[in-house]
C-alpha cells in the first residue's frame, strides 16, 4: 500500500499554479470541441496530488437531496465539509446554485459538485415512456427526444441522467420493463446508442447536453419470477448474446457513466462483481468513464450476505470496479470507510486514486470548474420552449401501436359521427398520462385523452365523459410516494358509475374507452403477478362492449394486458404518452396522425405464459411449439414486432445479393415494400435470420435489421439491408468465445417476427 502523504502547510505550488492556468484559459467559453486528453489528465493529476484521503472518499460519494429540513441541513453541512462529490434529486436551479456555492466556497480545493437526476423520458416536457419510444422503432426520433430532455436538464443545472435503462425484459410481470426497450437485444442496442447520442451530443461537455448513465449493469431485467430486486441466474450464453449487447452499444456510443445493478448475478451481487465491472466493462470493452452504484448497493452487499460490515463492503465494491457510491437516502455512505481501509492497507492508494481520477475527469469534461453555476434567468425559457411540446406530440404519435381495427373503425370520420362517449379511469388522469419517473418537482403538466378529444372535436361533436371505475390501491405503498403525493379524491360508487358509463356508451355513436394501469403500477417495486386489467376495468369493458355500439380501447400501460378476448372493435396501445399524450391520441383517433409503431415485446395471453419471447431455440419438437399447454394455445396474443396501420402493405421480391459468402464478409438483402391501401402510412420493415447449424444451436429467428418507412398509396419502396459479419456471429459456450460458423442462413423480411417472405444464403470457408 502506498503511504498516505500528509498535506503540508505549503501545498505543491507548481501543481496548483498549473491547475489555475488551465482553468483560466477555458473559463467563460462554451466548448465547441472536447478538451484535450493530455490536458484533462494533467488537471486531474494536479488535483489528486493535493487531496487527502477524506477528500478523495468524498468525491466518490453521492447523496440524495431530500427536501426535509433536518436532512437537508445535514446534507448541506456534509457538502461544506467536502464529504460529497455528487448529489441527486435536485432540480431547482436556485437550490443547485446554493449547494454548488457551498462546495466551492467552503471546501479547500473548491471542487464542484456533479448533479444527477432520473431523466428517464423527459424532465419538464415528458415524452412517452422508454418502452413506448422503443415501440416507434425510430432511433432518430428517440435521439431527438433525449436531446430535448438533456437541454432541459442542463438548463436547470443537472449534469447527468440515470438513463437509459438497457435491461432486456422478457417477463412482463417485471415492472421496470417500462424503462427499457423490451425483449430484443438488437432493437435494445439501437435504442441504447440513440439515447446516449441524444443525452450527450457530439462529446461529453457539449453545450445543452448531459452525461448518459446506462443502467443497470447487468442482467437486472431477468429477475426471477419478474419480481423486482430478486436474484438473477443467467448462463454465459444469455449474458453475452442477449443481456450485454445493449450495454456494449452504449459504451461504443461513448456513454460517460455506467450504473451497476444491485441484485445478485449468478451468486455475486453485480456491484461487487469484478468479472462484470472490470473484466468485461474495462478490459474487454475498454470503457473509460466511471461506474456508480444504484441506490444503497454498496451497503447492501452486507445484506446480500457477501460482506460482514460496511468497510468490507466498500473495499469489495471499489476493488471490483465501482468508482462512486450512490448512498442510501438519509443514511451514511459505506464509502466513508475507505479512508480507514486505506490506512489499514485494505485498499491501495492506486485503487483509490484510480476511482477519483475517473470522477474528476467527468467534472472537467463537463466544464464544471469553469462554469459551475446555472443561469437561473435562462432556465424557464428552455423549459417552456414550444418546440419541445411539438416534439413530445410527435413522439407520442409515432410510439402508438394499433393492435386491432375491425372493419376499419379507425380513423374516426368526424363528418359521420355526432357524439363520442369517453370513458375510463385513465381518460382524464393527468398524472397517469405522464407515466412513472415523473415527480412534482419536474413541474410538468399533461393533456389528457378527454381534453385532447374535446379540443379536437370543438363544437362539432358532443363529448360525454364517465370515469367508470377507479384504479385499486397498491397492496404495498410506492417507494416514491413521499415525493409524489396526490390529493385524495371523494369515493366513487363504481357499480352506479358503470351503469352510467354504459348508458353513455349506448347513447353515443362511438365510445373511446381508456383503460390500463395507473402509472405507479409500472416502474421500480411495481411488479405484478397478474396481467389482468386492475380493479373492475374488465367488468366496465365487458359492459360497454355489450351495448353493441362501436368501441375503441385506448390502452395506457407498459406491459401486455389480458383483455379476456374482448370484442372491442379497435385497440390502440399508447403506453404512457407524456405531456402531449391527449393531443397525440386525438390526432391518431381522427386520422391526423397514423399509427406506425410495432410491439417491442411478445404480447402474452396471460401471466402464466411468461416469460415468452420470439427468439427461442427450436427444441426437438418445433411443429408443436404453440401446443405446449393442453388447455390453450401457448403461442402469443400478438407476436414481437406486430402493429397495424390505417393502410395495408405488401412485401415482395426479397433478393439476397449472393448465395455464398466467406466468413467475415457482409451481404446485402433488398425487398420491395408496397402500400396497397388508400392512405399514406408508416411501416417498420424487419429483417430476421436463422442459422441452420453450427457450434451451438441458435434461436428460430433473430432480428438483425429494421427500417421505418413512410409509403404513399400505391407507392413501392425498395428497401436495402446490409448484414454485417457481427450480425452473423454469436457467443458460444462450447468455445467460450465469439464464433462465426460456416453454415446456411434463412432470411425473412416482413412486418413482424412472423414474417413469411424468405430467402437464404450460405457462409462457406474457402477451399
Give me the secondary-structure topology.
Blueprint: H1 13-26, H2 37-50, H3 53-59, E1 61-64, H4 69-80, E2 86-88, H5 93-106, E3 114-117, H6 130-134, H7 139-156, E4 160-161, H8 185-200, E5 211-212, H9 236-243, H10 245-252, E6 257-260, E7 264-265, E8 268-269, H11 274-284, E9 290-293, H12 300-303, H13 310-320, E10 325-326, H14 338-343, H15 349-365, H16 376-383, H17 386-399, E11 401-405, E12 419-423, H18 430-434, H19 449-457, E13 462-466, H20 494-507, E14 510-516, H21 537-545, E15 551-556, E16 570-573, H22 581-589, E17 649-656, E18 660-661, E19 667-675, E20 681-691, E21 702-711, E22 716-723, E23 730-732, E24 737-739, E25 744-750, E26 757-763
Explain this structure to me?
With 767 residues, this protein is an alpha/beta fold. It contains 22 helices and 26 strands. A six-stranded parallel β-sheet has the order 5-4-3-2-1-10. It has a six-stranded mixed β-sheet with strand order 11-16-15-14-12-13, sandwiched between helices. Strand 7 (264-265) and strand 8 form a beta hairpin. It is globular and about 75 Å long.
- The name of the CATH architecture of the domain at 395-609 is 3-Layer(aba) Sandwich
Report the strand count. 26
Largest sheet: 6 strands, parallel
Indicate the radius of gyration in whole angstroms: 27 Å
Shape: globular
Q: What is the CATH top level name of the domain at 395-609?
A: Alpha Beta
Strand order of the largest sheet: 5-4-3-2-1-10
Count of individual helical segments: 22
How much helicity do the residues have? Answer: 25-40%
Cα distance spanning the termini: 57 Å
Structural class: alpha/beta
Strand share of the residues?
15-25%
CATH homologous superfamily classification of the domain at 395-609: Glycoside hydrolase family 3 C-terminal domain
Q: Give the uncertain stretches in residue-range form.
A: 1-28
> What do we call the CATH topology of the domain at 395-609?
Rossmann fold
Q: Could you tell me the mean pLDDT? A: 94
Amino acid at each position: 500500500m502506498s503511504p498516505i502523504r500528509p498535506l503540508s502547510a505549503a501545498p505543491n505550488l507548481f501543481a496548483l499554479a498549473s491547475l489555475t492556468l488551465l482553468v483560466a484559459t477555458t473559463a467563460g467559453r462554451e466548448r465547441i470541441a472536447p478538451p484535450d486528453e493530455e490536458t484533462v489528465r494533467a488537471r486531474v493529476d494536479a488535483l489528486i496530488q493535493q487531496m487527502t484521503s477524506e477528500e478523495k472518499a468524498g468525491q466518490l460519494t453521492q447523496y440524495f437531496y431530500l427536501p426535509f429540513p433536518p436532512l437537508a441541513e445535514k446534507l448541506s453541512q456534509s457538502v461544506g465539509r467536502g464529504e460529497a462529490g455528487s448529489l441527486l434529486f435536485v432540480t431547482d436551479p436556485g437550490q443547485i446554485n446554493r449547494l454548488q456555492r457551498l462546495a466551492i466556497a467552503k471546501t479547500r480545493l473548491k471542487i464542484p459538485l456533479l448533479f444527477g437526476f432520473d431523466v428517464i423520458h423527459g424532465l419538464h416536457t415528458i415524452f412517452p415512456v422508454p418502452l413506448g419510444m422503443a415501440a416507434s422503432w425510430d432511433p432518430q426520433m428517440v435521439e431527438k427526444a433525449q436531446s430535448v430532455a438533456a437541454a432541459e436538464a442542463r438548463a436547470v443545472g443537472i449534469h447527468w441522467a440515470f438513463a437509459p435503462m438497457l435491461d432486456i425484459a422478457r417477463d412482463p410481470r417485471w415492472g421496470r420493463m417500462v424503462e427499457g426497450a423490451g425483449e430484443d437485444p438488437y432493437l435494445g442496442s439501437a435504442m441504447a446508442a440513440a439515447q446516449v447520442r441524444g443525452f450527450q451530443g457530439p462529446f461529453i461537455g457539449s453545450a445543452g447536453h448531459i452525461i448518459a448513465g446506462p443502467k443497470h449493469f447487468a442482467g437486472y431485467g431477468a429477475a426471477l419470477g419478474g419480481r423486482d430486486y430478486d436474484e438473477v441466474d443467467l448462463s454465459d450464453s444469455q449474458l453475452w448474446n442477449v443481456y450485454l449487447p445493449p450495454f456494449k452499444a452504449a459504451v461504443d456510443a461513448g456513454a460517460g457513466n455506467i450504473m451497476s445493478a444491485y441484485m445478485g448475478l449468478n451468486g455475486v451481487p453485480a456491484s461487487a462483481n469484478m468479472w462484470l465491472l472490470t473484466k468485461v466493462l474495462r478490459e474487454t470493452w475498454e470503457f473509460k468513464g466511471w461506474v456508480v452504484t444504484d441506490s444503497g448497493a454498496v451497503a447492501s452487499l452486507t445484506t446480500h450476505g457477501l460482506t460482514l460490515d460496511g468497510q468490507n463492503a466498500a473495499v469489495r465494491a471499489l476493488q471490483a470496479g465501482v468508482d462512486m457510491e450512490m448512498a442510501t437516502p438519509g443514511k451514511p455512505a459505506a464509502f466513508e470507510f475507505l479512508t480507514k481501509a486505506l490506512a489499514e492497507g485494505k485498499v491501495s492508494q492506486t485503487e483509490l486514486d484510480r476511482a477519483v481520477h475517473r470522477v474528476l475527469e467527468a467534472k472537467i469534461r463537463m466544464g464544471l470548474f469553469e462554469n459551475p453555476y446555472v443561469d437561473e434567468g435562462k432556465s424557464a425559457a428552455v423549459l417552456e420552449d414550444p418546440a419541445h411540446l411539438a416534439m413530445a406530440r410527435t413522439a407520442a404519435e409515432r410510439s402508438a401501436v394499433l393492435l386491432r381495427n375491425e372493419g376499419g373503425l379507425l380513423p374516426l370520420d368526424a363528418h359521420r359521427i355526432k357524439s363520442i362517449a369517453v370513458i375510463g379511469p385513465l381518460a382524464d388522469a393527468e398524472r397517469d398520462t405522464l407515466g412513472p419517473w415523473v415527480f412534482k418537482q419536474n413541474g410538468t403538466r399533461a393533456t389528457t385523452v378527454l381534453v385532447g378529444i374535446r379540443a379536437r372535436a370543438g363544437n362539432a361533436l358532443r363529448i360525454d365523459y364517465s370515469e367508470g371505475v377507479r384504479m385499486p390501491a397498491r397492496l404495498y405503498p410506492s417507494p416514491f410516494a413521499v415525493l409524489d403525493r396526490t390529493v385524495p379524491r371523494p369515493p366513487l360508487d363504481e357499480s352506479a358509475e358503470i351503469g352510467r358509463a354504459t348508458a353513455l356508451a349506448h347513447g353515443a355513436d362511438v365510445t373511446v374507452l381508456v383503460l390500463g394501469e395507473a402509472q405507479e403500477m409500472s416502474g421500480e417495486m411495481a411488479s405484478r403477478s397478474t396481467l389482468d386489467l386492475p380493479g373492475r376495468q374488465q367488468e366496465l369493458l365487458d359492459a360497454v362492449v355489450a351495448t353493441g355500439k362501436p368501441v375503441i380501447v385506448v390502452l395506457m400501460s407498459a406491459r401486455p394486458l389480458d383483455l379476456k378476448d374482448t370484442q372491442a372493435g379497435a385497440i390502440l396501445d399508447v403506453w404512457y404518452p407524456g405531456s402531449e399524450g391527449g393531443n397525440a391520441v386525438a390526432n391518431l383517433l381522427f386520422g391526423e396522425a397514423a399509427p406506425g409503431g410495432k410491439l417491442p415485446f411478445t404480447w402474452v395471453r396471460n401471466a402464466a405464459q411468461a416469460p415468452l419471447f420470439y427468439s427461442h431455440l427450436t427444441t426437438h419438437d418445433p411443429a408443436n411449439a404453440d401446443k405446449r399447454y393442453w388447455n390453450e394455445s401457448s403461442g402469443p396474443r400478438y407476436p414481437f414486432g406486430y402493429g397495424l396501420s390505417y393502410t395495408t402493405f405488401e412485401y415482395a421480391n426479397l433478393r439476397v445479393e449472393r448465395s455464398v459468402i466467406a466468413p467475415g464478409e457482409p451481404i446485402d438483402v433488398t425487398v420491395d415494400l408496397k402500400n396497397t391501401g388508400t392512405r399514406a402510412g408508416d411501416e417498420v420493415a424487419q429483417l430476421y435470420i436463422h442459422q441452420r447449424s453450427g457450434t451451438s444451436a441458435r434461436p428460430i429467428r433473430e432480428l438483425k435489421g429494421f427500417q421505418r418507412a413512410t409509403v404513399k398509396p400505391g407507392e413501392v419502396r425498395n428497401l436495402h439491408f446490409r448484414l454485417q459479419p457481427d450480425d452473423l456471429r454469436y457467443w458460444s459456450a462450447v468455445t467460450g468465445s465469439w464464433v462465426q460458423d460456416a453454415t446456411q442462413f434463412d432470411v425473412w423480411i416482413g412486418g413482424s417476427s412472423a414474417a413469411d417472405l424468405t430467402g437464404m444464403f450460405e457462409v462457406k470457408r474457402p477451399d
